[in-house]
Amino acid sequence: MRFMYDCFELNNGIKIPCIGFGTYKATEGKGAEVIKAALEAGYRYFDTAAFYNNEEEIGKAVQESGIKREELFLASKVWKSDMGAEGTKRSFEESLRRLGTDYLDLYLIHWPRPDLETEEWKAILTETWKAAEELYREGRVRAVGVSNFLPHHLEVLFNAGGVCPAVNQIEFHPGYTQEFTLNYCKERDILVQAWSPLGRKRVLEHPLLVELSKKYKVSPAQLCIRYALKRHVLPLPKASSPERMKENLEVSGFEISREDMYRISSMPSAGWSGEHPDFERERF
Ligand SMILES: NC(=O)c1ccc[n+]([C@@H]2O[C@H](COP(=O)([O-])OP(=O)(O)OC[C@H]3O[C@@H](n4cnc5c(N)ncnc54)[C@H](OP(=O)(O)O)[C@@H]3O)[C@@H](O)[C@H]2O)c1
């Protein structure tokens, strides 16, 4: 089995590659070359956002690669400051233009609230979701979803009726697996995606991961990615070098035992980014 060519199926029947390339800060100082390298390494799914300020570079790399649009999976997100019906639709059109495409494969609401002060955030969120649903019904995007949503944020969408989100992209890595939200999503057939699947390197030197990576003769990063996949969570690792890009796709040649899955799942909390949708960011 080669995960780079395997897919998960979303709750609307759309196939999505099992591993995506995370692009936050990926192109800084390097431009489209990084995305070209990721395409060469085998990635076909690119996770971007209006906030990442790199959609143009991704569009450029994709166009110059000559790879057919239908072989790619392009996902973007509407930023907090653009929430609401008009802002969402405008932001979507701008993302399409920058990416040089006429549809997206996945469009996410980046965070559930525009900020922590706005009391009517639920109304703004509902409007944002309705705009995303409209784009979906018009066929401009193949699936719609959310990011950084906890169960009480998701319930705002459910209370509004309509389309069930296909995806919830949350921070997920050994040491921070958000079990409650993960289970809530699984019960409702919402695919969870892992942002910072390597804990942005913060967990790669954890003694348990170092021990297990020696046992399985893989790198701690490969262990983290395989762990996510075994939890049916779609990892979005970011890497700068072609070597690391490839390494992060080569995760099919080993099997983590049930005992070791339990050990990873119950390890002490580690590597949390400090970000939480309902609180100011913690700085460590
Ligand atoms: N929805 C959200 O709110 C949200 C938030 C954060 C991130 N994301 C998405 O998730 C993606 C991934 O998250 P992330 O970029 O925060 O962190 P990450 O993928 O967990 O970690 C990236 C870091 O790990 C290093 N790395 C990559 N492969 C490695 C390997 N094989 N061995 C050792 N180190 C390795 C990278 O270094 P080099 O770059 O130097 O290779 C980089 O410093 C983002 O790019 C973005 O698309 C979404």
What is shown here, in short?
With 284 residues, this protein is of the alpha/beta class.
Strand content: 5-15%
Ligands present: NADP nicotinamide-adenine-dinucleotide phosphate
Helix content: 25-40%
CATH architecture designation: Alpha-Beta Barrel
How many structural domains in the coordinates?
1
Can you tell me the CATH superfamily? NADP-dependent oxidoreductase domain
> How would the global form be characterised?
globular
The helix-and-strand class reads alpha/beta
H-E string: EEEHEHEHEHEHEHEHHEHH
Distance between the termini: 40 Å
Q: C-alpha Rg, in Å? A: 18 Å
Number of strands: 10
User: Sheet with the most strands?
Assistant: 8 strands, parallel
CATH topology: TIM Barrel
The count of helical stretches stands at 10
Q: Return the average pLDDT rounded to an integer.
A: 97
Low-confidence stretches: none
Walk across the major sheet and give the strand order. Answer: 3-4-5-6-7-8-9-10
CATH class identity: Alpha Beta
Question: What does this protein structure show overall?
Answer:
- Helices cover 38% and strands 13% of the residues.
- The chain is of the alpha/beta class and 284 residues long.
- It has one domain (11-201, 232-241): TIM Barrel.
- The longest helix is centred in the middle third of the chain and has 17 residues, at 121-137.
- NADP nicotinamide-adenine-dinucleotide phosphate binds at residues 22-24, 47, 110, 147-148, 169, 195-201, 204, 219, 221, 236-241, 244, 247-248.
